[in-house]
Design goal:
alpha/beta; globular; 16% strand; 8-stranded mixed beta sheet; Rossmann fold; single chain
Length: 289
């Protein structure tokens, strides 16, 4: 008699650790949405691995009942890349914040995107360095008062969607932590996408950005209309531009699958096999001039 298939629930992806985030932190919504997404995908926990850097959001691996690794600041992507190359059958997810991902770790984004490594990157963007008590981050709006900009932030913020588009990421989306249902859909789509997928998630920091941010965002966030052509990179660029009404589109900006790193690697390997040059090279002969 065939055994009934085990059905995973969102609670099967939770650990006993209680999140230490501030009450009202948007990261609670992202964590809950991630657990729900994994349950919808029905991926066994032992086949998933989370990587994080440093920051409030980087506590994720401890709150998720999967394999996980908490790395140093900005280094979630290279470690996740190594794991995916070594164990391509695993579902690999990197998580972090805007400071971790777009500042010290920003140099890794163009390479994971161009290589199209088959992993998902969830970036909890709160426009501030929260763990280190409220300094301006790469996405802090110009003019904002923070611990390091008491007279107003004089820098222009980076645009993460433009970053990802310029780097040729094959899946680019933006979500909102307070819109759980929509965020679950985005995370599911990102993990299912064959190749590098980045989801920039608006995740308000009530401690250092204020409760008003929630009230403001509630009126500004809107879902990208279904008429948007996800394969049109130019349309995605325009959609991500600053708007006069300050409205923030959430949803899939761009999705255009192309061969992943592993698929390209397999092609090169087969070419090498057919070349007839399969002999192992004597490494010492390489040094003989």
């Amino acid at each position: 008699m065939e055994q009934p298939q085990f059905i995973y629930k969102s609670t099967d992806y939770k650990t006993d650790l209680k999140p230490v985030w501030c009450p009202g932190c948007g990261d609670f919504g992202v964590l809950g949405a991630t657990h729900k997404a994994l349950a919808e995908l029905q991926i066994p926990p032992e086949n998933i691995m989370f990587f994080s850097g440093i920051g409030c959001s980087s506590r994720f691996p401890g709150y998720t009942n999967t394999y996980g690794f908490n790395a140093i600041h900005g280094r979630a992507i290279p470690l996740a890349t190594g794991a995916k190359i070594a164990r391509p059958e695993l579902t690999v997810v990197a998580v972090g914040g805007d400071g971790d991902g777009y500042s010290i770790g920003g140099g890794h984004l163009p390479h994971v995107a161009r290589k199209n490594i088959d992993l998902t990157y969830l970036v909890m963007n709160n426009n501030i360095y929260g763990l280190t008590k409220g300094q301006a981050s790469p996405t802090t709006p110009t003019g904002s008062i923070t611990k390091t900009t008491p007279y107003g932030n004089m820098d222009s913020p980076v645009n993460p969607i433009h970053y990802a588009l310029a780097y040729n990421a094959s899946f680019i989306a933006r979500g909102y932590s307070a819109n759980m249902k929509h965020l679950v859909e985005l995370i599911v789509a990102a993990i299912k996408h064959p190749g590098f997928a980045i989801v920039d998630i608006i995740s308000p920091c009530v401690t250092f950005r204020g409760d008003e941010q929630y009230k403001t965002l509630k009126d500004l966030v809107f879902e990208i209309p279904e008429s948007h052509d996800k394969t049109d990179k130019v349309a995605a660029f325009h959609l991500a531009l600053e708007r006069d009404d300050n409205k923030i589109p959430v949803g899939i900006y761009y999705q255009n699958p192309r061969p992943t790193y592993h698929e390209n690697y397999d092609i090169i390997r087969e070419k090498a096999k057919k070349s007839g040059k399969n002999e192992l090279t004597d490494i010492y002969s390489l040094f003989q001039a």
